[in-house]
Amino acid sequence: MYDVDFQAWDLTGNSQLAEDAETVCLEESIPGDLNGDGCVDQADLGILLTDWGCTDGECPGDCDDDGDTDQSDLGILLTHWGESCP
């Protein structure tokens, strides 16, 4: 998780850190969770296999952000298989 401070802007364009600002925590995604549901499972494997061989950089099955869907992406998905699943 990350703690993030946001600056507050008023209508005149002045910025300052709000004294009563809340702490925002962003969840870190799980490698291999291709559909973003917080669980690495069959649905993610289906996305990866449907996208297998994609090389155009816009690949939904690309787990390692190298622009394609291949065996390294499958390895990442399988390494994290079952994480955060009920």
Structure summary:
By secondary structure, this protein is an alpha+beta fold. It has helices spanning 42-50, 71-79; strands spanning 2-4, 7-9, 15-17, 24-26.
Structure explained in plain terms:
The structure is a single chain. By secondary structure, the protein is α+β, with helices and mostly antiparallel strands. The protein has a single domain, classed as Orthogonal Bundle (Type 1 dockerin domain), CATH 1.10.1330.10. Helices cover 21% and strands 14% of the residues. It is built from 2 helices and 4 strands. The protein has helices at residues 42-50, 71-79; strands spanning 2-4, 7-9, 15-17, 24-26. The strands form 2 sheets. The chain has a two-stranded antiparallel ribbon with strand order 1-4. The protein has a two-stranded antiparallel ribbon with strand order 2-3. The longest helix has 9 residues, at 42-50.
Q: Note the run of SSEs as H and E.
A: EEEEHH
CATH architecture call: Orthogonal Bundle
- How would you classify the quaternary structure? single chain
**Strand content bin:** 5-15%
Mean pLDDT: 80
How many DSSP helices?
2
Count of the domains: 1
Radius of gyration: 18 Å
Could you give the order of strands across the largest sheet? Answer: 1-4
Q: Could you give the distance between the termini? A: 21 Å
Overall body shape = elongated
- The residue fraction in helices comes out at 10-25%
CATH superfamily: Dockerin domain
